[in-house]
């Protein structure tokens, strides 16, 4: 896969590295990049949207919904970049990512209903693992959330459902697409969990590196999974 999309992967690695440098040393990066550092973060999703359009021409509901998820990820990135300017920007960013996750859920659901009879055992495991994580992590965060209890509860439920629906694609699409999207969903949950811990519980110095590295990989893997997607023939298992 890396060799197959070599030019794009090289460009995305450059964006990835520059964004991590911005997160690791914001002061120096602003001096070196000047105002261009504001363009680096949006390039994450913009590059992935262009890549998706090039390879799929947005044919079919799946590609359109993944594109929509990336678009709202772009909105979320932009709002969070300026969250220090106004507190409402954090909520707008949260809402943007929430809509993005809902669009991913709607995309993954298309593959689930293709043949909902198969892989029932895997579905039960996904429900148990992601459901338990959602409940336990929310209970842990709840004392720190103040007026954000309900928004965070809704967000935790939706992102866990996104993970469940990503897992439900097993056996319905080719293995490569399933694994790429599945790992993308897991990394997205990890990224959001780190962000929530850093914002509500205990800020830590390297949080930006961990949040952005997992987030960028998550969006990359989901996009690649959408490009590599091939439906399997319907069969009972």
Shape, principal axes of CA atoms? globular
How many domains? 1
Average pLDDT? 89
Helix content: over 70%
CA-to-CA gap between the ends?
29 Å
SS class: mainly alpha
The string of secondary-structure elements, in order, is HHHHHHHHH
Low-confidence stretches: none
**Approximately what portion of the residues adopt beta-strand conformation?**
under 5%
Beta-strand segment tally: 0
Sketch the major β-sheet.
Answer: none
Q: How many individual helices?
A: 9
Computed over alpha carbons, the radius of gyration is 18 Å
Task: Write up this protein.
- 37% of the residues are buried.
- This protein has 237 residues and is mostly helical.
- Helices cover 77% and strands 0% of the residues.
- Helix 1 runs antiparallel to helix 9 (207-227), helix 4 (61-81) runs antiparallel to helix 5 (88-112) and helix 4 packs antiparallel against helix 9 (207-227).
- It has one domain (6-227).
Supply database-style keywords.
237 residues, mainly alpha, 9 helices
Helices and strands in order:
Elements: H1 6-24, H2 26-33, H3 37-56, H4 61-81, H5 88-112, H6 120-141, H7 149-167, H8 175-201, H9 207-227
Subcellular location: Membrane
InterPro entries: TMEM86B-like
Protein name: Lysoplasmalogenase
Summarize the structure.
The protein has 237 residues and is an all-alpha fold. The chain has helices spanning 6-24, 26-33, 37-56, 61-81, 88-112, 120-141, 149-167, 175-201, 207-227. Helix 1 (6-24) crosses helix 2 (26-33).
